């Protein structure tokens, strides 16, 4: 996988200080949100933990010796959530799903794949969708199970599939209609 | 006062205490220079002796007022490498000790300072132990009375000081006027350059017709109004030089210095005068910073212009902190901080906080 090219503001020291002036801070958070989304898309990351990402090169620039504080990262995540580009999976564990595609977009992509490969009326496990060789070339390959379930629930609500209960999430089955 | 030193025979000396190696001693008191002397410091005495000349100086610690490193003076009398300690005696004289080693010198200063402190404490304790005068209500009343008396005395002394200051100012002004007069008389044939120089100097020093309360019959707005105009004329130039900002304290000094009269003005009068600037349409205004410091700011630069200037400065230097800005713009630090924050509010610059340092960068992205 090619290395991610950081935007210039990532090597600009003030980026790593939350700006006290409101309008400035708005724009700053927006830039960070955009960066998180493109970074996660590039590396196919579906969720970020607050504590882990505090040491990720995403929020640390060693070349200028600056890092974004955990509280600032939390604000970035909260901003993502409020804009609909993320969802707190577990507020206590501070894990946030990052929606570089939103669940309804994923739903559309998966359903397109189902239709194109003639899988309607067939039953698949969630594990198959995530790890089968057939999906290797698709973006949803190795997708986060929580996010996959959310996306399938969107399809279910549209009447395009039925989800069968299983003991663990990978055991879950889905029948596309 | 006790004799500060004793010249005695070596036999008399009791050489107690810590020994230090010195290269040279110069005593301003006895006008003596000792080469390769020996130095002994005890809690009571400082003994210095030059064996080759049989010379012996003894100083009691109680006659020493303080000790410090001497960095600037009389270096040429010592060898290049010596570090020099200056001992100030309570009679106004001093002695200089040249040490061979820096480490010796710092130990010496530390020791001697300790001894000095001990002496002072002892002295203070001695004076505090005066017998108590009376007990009960009578005692309290007595001590109150004494306090009041003491207060009155201090007040009296303070006014006496002020009076002497005023009379000195008067003398100075007379001298200046006399000098100016004589210069004008001898103008012909003199070096014109000198005259011009003096005039410039006098112009920066003096106000020709300073306003006094007496002229205007004491109190009232009129005095402050005229004083305001005088202040304006006096500080217009220095204000420009100082980046358009001056502390009220500095303004006070300028105004006092510029007044060629014996009548000083009070800080309150100055403040009252400055508060009139707005009404008089003088392009200077008073601002009170968050810290409570009062400053005068020139109105000839408006906030937007200042913000733009700061932005350009920050841009040219990549980044800037308040201290650097204060020194570049020649303004008080607190003003520099508030101006930078103003510029930040406008979104022209933004901050980088790192290890408790705040630097401002041009706002390139936000």
Automatic annotation (TrEMBL), chain A:
Cellular localization per UniProt? Cytoplasm
| GO biological process terms, semicolon-separated | macroautophagy; protein transport to vacuole involved in ubiquitin-dependent protein catabolic process via the multivesicular body sorting pathway
What keyword terms does UniProt attach to this protein? Cytoplasm, Protein transport, Transport
Which organism does this record belong to? Galdieria partita
**A GO MF term:** protein homodimerization activity
Name of this protein: Vacuolar protein-sorting-associated protein 25
Transmembrane annotation, as ranges: none
Q: Which family, according to the similarity comment? A: Belongs to the VPS25 family.
The cellular component terms of Gene Ontology attached to this UniProt record, alphabetical and capped at eight, are: ESCRT II complex
Record-linked SUPFAM superfamilies: Winged helix' DNA-binding domain
UniProtKB/TrEMBL annotation, chain B:
Main localization of the protein?
cytoplasm
Tell me a GO biological process for this protein: protein transport to vacuole involved in ubiquitin-dependent protein catabolic process via the multivesicular body sorting pathway
* Cellular compartment(s): Cytoplasm; Endosome
Q: Which UniProt keywords apply?
A: Coiled coil, Cytoplasm, Endosome, Protein transport, Transport
Q: Name one Pfam family in it.
A: EAP30
Q: May I have one GO cellular component term?
A: ESCRT II complex
List the InterPro entries hit by this protein, alphabetically: Snf8/Vps36, Vps36, WH-like_DNA-bd_sf, WH_DNA-bd_sf
Coiled-coil ranges (or none): 109-168
Q: Which SUPFAM superfamilies match?
A: Winged helix' DNA-binding domain (SSF46785)
Q: Which GO terms describe its molecular function?
A: phosphatidylinositol-3-phosphate binding; ubiquitin binding
Recorded hits in PANTHER family, A to Z, give: VACUOLAR PROTEIN-SORTING-ASSOCIATED PROTEIN 36 (PTHR13128)
Subunit and partners: Component of the endosomal sorting complex required for transport II (ESCRT-II).
Describe its function: Component of the ESCRT-II complex (endosomal sorting complex required for transport II), which is required for multivesicular body (MVB) formation and sorting of endosomal cargo proteins into MVBs.
Q: Which family does it belong to?
A: Belongs to the VPS36 family.
Protein name listed in UniProt = Vacuolar protein-sorting-associated protein 36
Q: Could you tell me which species this protein originates from?
A: Galdieria partita
């Amino acid at each position: 996988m090619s290395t991610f090219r950081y935007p210039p503001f990532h090597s600009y020291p003030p980026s790593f200080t939350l700006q006290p002036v409101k309008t400035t801070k708005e724009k700053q958070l927006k830039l960070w949100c955009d960066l998180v989304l493109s970074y996660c898309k590039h590396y196919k990351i579906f969720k970020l933990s607050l504590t882990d990402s505090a040491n990720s090169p995403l929020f640390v620039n060693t070349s200028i010796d600056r890092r974004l504080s955990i509280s600032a990262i939390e604000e970035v995540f909260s901003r993502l959530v409020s804009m609909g580009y993320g969802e707190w999976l577990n507020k206590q564990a501070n894990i946030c799903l990052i929606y570089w595609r939103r669940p309804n977009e994923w739903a559309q992509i998966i359903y397109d794949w189902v239709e194109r490969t003639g899988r309607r009326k067939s039953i698949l496990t969630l594990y198959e969708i995530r790890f089968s060789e057939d999906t290797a070339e698709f973006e949803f390959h190795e997708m986060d199970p929580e996010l996959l379930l959310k996306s399938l629930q969107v399809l279910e609500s549209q009447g395009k599939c039925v989800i069968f209960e299983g003991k663990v999430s990978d055991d879950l089955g889905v029948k596309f209609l | 006062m006790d004799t500060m030193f004793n010249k005695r025979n070596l036999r008399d000396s009791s050489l107690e205490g810590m020994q230090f190696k010195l290269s040279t001693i110069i005593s301003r008191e006895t006008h003596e220079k000792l080469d390769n002397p020996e130095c002994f410091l005890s809690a009571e005495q400082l003994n210095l002796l030059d064996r080759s000349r049989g010379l012996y100086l003894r100083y009691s610690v109680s006659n020493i007022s303080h000790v410090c490193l001497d960095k600037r003076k009389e270096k040429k009398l010592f060898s290049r490498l010596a570090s020099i300690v200056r001992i100030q005696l309570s009679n106004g004289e001093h002695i200089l000790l040249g040490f061979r080693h820096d480490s010796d010198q710092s130990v010496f200063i530390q020791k001697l300072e300790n001894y000095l402190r001990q002496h002072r404490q002892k002295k203070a304790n001695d004076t505090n132990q005066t017998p108590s005068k009376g007990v009960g209500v009578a005692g309290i009343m007595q001590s109150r009375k004494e306090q009041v008396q003491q207060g009155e005395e201090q007040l009296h002394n303070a006014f006496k000081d002020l009076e002497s200051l005023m009379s000195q100012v008067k003398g100075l002004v007379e001298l200046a006027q006399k000098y100016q007069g004589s210069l004008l008389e001898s103008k012909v044939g003199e070096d014109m350059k000198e005259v011009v120089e003096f005039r410039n100097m006098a112009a920066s020093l003096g106000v020709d017709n300073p306003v006094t309360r007496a002229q205007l019959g004491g109190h009232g707005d009129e005095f402050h109004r005229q004083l305001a105009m005088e202040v304006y004329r006096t500080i217009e130039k220095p204000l420009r030089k100082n980046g358009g900002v001056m502390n009220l304290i500095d303004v006070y000094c300028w105004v006092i210095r510029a007044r060629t009269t014996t009548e000083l003005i009070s800080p309150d009068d100055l403040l009252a005068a400055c508060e009139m600037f707005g009404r008089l349409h003088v392009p200077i205004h008073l601002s009170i910073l968050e810290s409570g410091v009062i400053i005068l700011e020139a109105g000839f630069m408006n906030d937007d212009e200042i913000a733009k200037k700061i932005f350009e400065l920050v841009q040219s230097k990549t980044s800037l902190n308040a201290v650097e800005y204060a020194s570049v713009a020649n303004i008080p630090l607190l003003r520099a901080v508030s101006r930078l924050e103003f510029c930040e509010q406008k979104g022209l610059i933004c901050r980088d906080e790192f290890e408790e340092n705040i630097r401002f960068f041009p706002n390139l992205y936000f």
